[in-house]
Design a protein that fits this description.
Elements (H helix, E strand, L loop, with lengths): L26 E8 L4 E3 L10 H11 L4 E5 H7 L17 E5 L12 H7 L7 E5 L8 H8 L3 E5 L9 H10 L4 E6 L1 H7 L10 E6 L9 E2 L5 E2 L6 E2 L4 E9 L2 E8 L2
Parallel strand pairs: 1-7, 1-8, 3-4, 3-7, 4-5, 5-6
Antiparallel strand pairs: 2-9, 8-13, 10-11, 12-13
The structure holds NADP nicotinamide-adenine-dinucleotide phosphate and the ligand Nc1nc(=O)c(N)c(NC[C@H](O)[C@H](O)[C@H](O)COP(=O)(O)O)[nH]1.
């Protein structure tokens, strides 16, 4: 895959990046690109929203994180590479792709881009998080992942459909992954922006592209929140330390959740 055109990253964004020494808490950065109508994409479609400058920023951010996390919905639709393609990025600065795929529905093959990327030594192979009820022994896909240094990570769900982000954070640390860049898609992001999960989010970096994708897109809008005091609707998520940068045609918000 062709190296990416590098653009100088914005200055003075260190406070939004993982610390150089890990602190025992998983550092979580939520980052994605959105349209003006808060859509990530058109359903079942990969939509390039980021311009060259913000795509370069995303790849820059990937070199600061131990892991990059997406949901199975994204890996199935986008067939992503999930590496940093900034020229000269050493393997030691490549993030570990993590795919949330409880039912192991991703039909990974040797042609999958993330597998090819790992095979060429241009990125790391994925860890696929799967529910303990799913039979993976003898599954050809497990072998394909292991051949390039990836693995199926079996996680207890104790009958629940979803893993809590506390369980996911503990599992990441167990795997020696101490900082993660959560890139989407809609299901993953709306879940992470739910009230109870916000304390786990350290930084939010959102690219806003100058386009409307139109109704019925893959929308980012967290669950509504009402005030405990009077039961009235209040903002679902607020931010602090908010800074904006204009990169090419896109605006980028850097912020931290205001808990
Ligand atoms: N613009 C951007 O920055 C951006 C970024 C990423 C993706 N996208 C776009 O977004 C679309 C995909 O979004 P999506 O909402 O369909 O899919 P998604 O969020 O990538 O994946 C959702 C699925 O992941 C699994 N999952 C998520 N959270 C989980 C949890 N806590 N525990 C267990 N499993 C969990 C579930 O799988 P099961 O259903 O199997 O239970 C869930 O249905 C694509 O079109 C892609 O191009 C855009
Ligand atoms: N920053 C950003 N701008 C976009 O316009 C867009 N569509 C995504 N989408 C994120 C999603 O996670 C994709 O799957 C990966 O961006 C593809 O990853 P690669 O570049 O193939 O490594 N992310």
């Amino acid at each position: 895959m062709a190296p990416l055109m590098p653009y100088p990253p914005p200055t003075a964004i260190d406070k939004y990046l993982p610390p150089s020494q890990h602190t025992g808490k998983l550092f979580l950065t939520l980052t994605y690109a959105t349209s003006l109508d808060s859509h990530l994409s058109i359903p079942l479609t990969k939509v390039p929203l980021s311009g060259p400058e913000t795509k370069s920023l995303t790849h820059h951010l990937r070199t600061f994180h131990d892991a990059i996390l997406i949901g199975v919905g994204t890996v199935v639709v986008d067939d992503p590479g999930l590496n940093s393609r900034l020229p000269g990025t050493p393997l030691t600065r490549q993030p570990r792709p993590v795919i949330l795929d409880p039912a192991f529905r991703w039909k990974v093959t040797r042609e999958s881009r993330v597998v090819q990327t790992a095979e060429r030594g241009e990125g790391l192979a994925p860890y696929v998080f799967v529910r303990s009820e799913v039979e993976v022994e003898g599954d050809e896909r497990k072998r394909i992942l292991e051949e390039v240094g990836g693995k199926v990570v079996v996680i207890e769900t104790s009958g629940k459909k979803k893993w809590s982000w506390h369980v996911l954070s503990e599992k990441m640390k167990e795997l020696d992954l101490h900082s993660v860049m959560v890139e989407g898609g809609g299901g993953v992001i709306n879940d992470l922006l739910a009230e109870g999960n916000l304390p786990l989010v350290d930084s939010v970096i959102i690219t806003i592209a100058p386009t409307y994708l139109g109704q019925g897109g893959v929308n980012v809008s967290p669950r509504a929140v009402t005030s405990v005091a009077d039961g009235k609707r209040i903002s679902a998520v607020k931010f602090t330390n908010v800074e904006w940068r204009i990169l090419g045609r896109d605006a980028v918000m850097f912020a931290q959740p205001d808990l």
